[in-house]
Amino acid sequence: MQERELRATRFSVIGGARSGLAVASLLRSRGAEVFVSEQAAAERSAELRSVLDRLGVACEFGGHTARATEADVVVVSPGVSSDAPIVREALSRGCSVVSELEVASWFWRGPIVAITGTNGKTTTTALTGRMLSDARIPSVVAGNIGRAFSAVAEQTRGDEVAVLEVSSFQLDHVRTFRPAVAVLLNITPDHLDRYGHSFERYIASKMRIIERQKEGDALIYNADDEVTRQAVERSVPAGVRLLPFGLSRRPAEGAFEEDGMLKLSMAEGTTDVLAVEAISIPGIHNRYNAMAATLAARLCGAGVASLRSTLVNFKGVEHRLEFVRDRAGVKFVNDSKATNVDSVWYALQSFASPSFCFWGAGQGKRLQPARAPGAHAREGGGRHRGIRRYGTVLLRFHRPTTTASSMAEAVRIAAGSAVGGDIVLLSPACASFDWFENYEHRGRVFKELVMNL
Ligand code: ADP
Question: How many CB atoms within 10 Å of residue 314?
Fold first, then answer.
């Protein structure tokens, strides 16, 4: 959008958390008229109000009034559901509804690498960012991973490579967003409550990442994931360069494994990157993440030697299969970010035999019964499906199941019964908002308890 056009457009931002504030500030700095509408009560938003006052941005708190839709363009923060009444209201009033990601992209001049998928986004985004910085390629990492894209669009030169973690909620309202490199990691049922319980709608939302791609842009995708592969075949725009990755199939262009090596197949031929076992982050899922990141960074110009060194040295991201401590031969691993069943399945695959696995911690979002952990865990069986709701579940593989009524008790029981060679894994498959503020808080509490043993 041109500056003159921006000045003549009234924007309303729904949600005043990190991304909402960043996009309001970005738009205001470019001369637009901006209004912020925040659900949280005024008493809880004093700091936000003073920042907005300083920026000259009008605002309201404690809910969205009609004022929120008196705008030409309504910008939705990532946390606002597409089904939210305020979004429907904005659409019915004829407002143009766009996401924070879309707005930030208007101001970004450099190439964009956009990474989405049900699981693995943060790990792959962080790894790709590290690969680029290790290869000294100017880049910034943003999106769901921490800094809002709007914040970096405002504060940086804007011609670096933007490596973005992108959720489907943000993709719901893109118009012109066009990544030079799109990465699609996997698509499994999660967040369906925000898509009218329709898997098809959720898939369609993920696929919007490639909607505006054109000739010369690239799509890196998981060819072993049937849902992803079929969706790509159905909807890839003409001329987009396809780079599939998978554990076995050798693609014309893409990444694959052969004889225990991660290999790249590109126009210049096939290159051995490194032995799969030398990749520092554990588990099959991380082999996929490593392939996706390697392809993305390679397309941005990173050399193979540099990629290899990053893969050996990257220690992963906090709360994702994070090694906490070895205590008398018992390893403690924090996978608090495993908030859905698929990620737990991958966590269990990452270790020869975790002796203890925590499922659930307080109450969380409802799992679909067919995808409950019991369906995946060999020894677990379906009988564990219901117990998630009643408190921390301490699962003992190969032995009877025990429950504990607090995280502290669960850690105590696990530590007391584990013997050398066992792995105690926190991989809960759900959120637990009644006990913890978020998964980070849950992971920190777990780590603290473990360190104090
Ligand atoms: P996201 O940002 O998409 O939530 P993360 O990188 O934060 O993904 O990982 C979330 C959880 O999913 C972790 O518990 C991790 O073990 C698991 N996970 C990571 N990558 C994958 C993958 N490619 N497939 C399935 N599960 C994964």
Answer: 20
Q: For the segment 155-207, what is each residue's pLDDT rounded down to a tens digit?
A: 888 889 999 999 888 999 999 999 999 999 999 887 777 777 888 988 999 99
Closest ligand 1 atom number to CA of residue 144: 2
Per DSSP, what are the bridge partners of residue 342? none
When the candidates are 1.10.238.10, 3.40.50.1380, 1.10.357.10, 3.40.1190.10, the CATH number that belongs to 108-313 is 3.40.1190.10
β-bridge mates for residue 356, sequence order: 396, 424
pLDDT tens for 413-432 read: 888 878 888 888 888 777 76
Structure tokens belonging to residue 330: 């018992």
DSSP secondary structure code for residue 410 in this structure: H
Judge if the beta carbon of residue 345 lies within 6 A of ligand 1. Answer: no
The rounded distance, in Å, linking the Cα atoms of 236 and 27 is 32
Determine the residue of 115, 116, 119 to mutate for testing ligand 1's pocket, defined as the one with the most ligand atoms within 8 A of the Cβ atom. 119
Across the strands, what pairs with 264?
Answer: 255, 271
Q: What is the rounded CA–CA span in Å between residue 360 and residue 373?
A: 10
Q: What is the DSSP letter of 256?
A: E
Q: Is 431 in the pocket of ligand 1 (CB under 6 A)?
A: no
Smallest CA separation from ligand 1 atom 17, residue: 343
The domain spans of the chain are: 9-99, 108-313, 322-451
What pLDDT shows up at residue 351?
A: 76
Which atom of ligand 1 is closest in space to residue 337's alpha carbon?
14
pTM over 0.70: yes
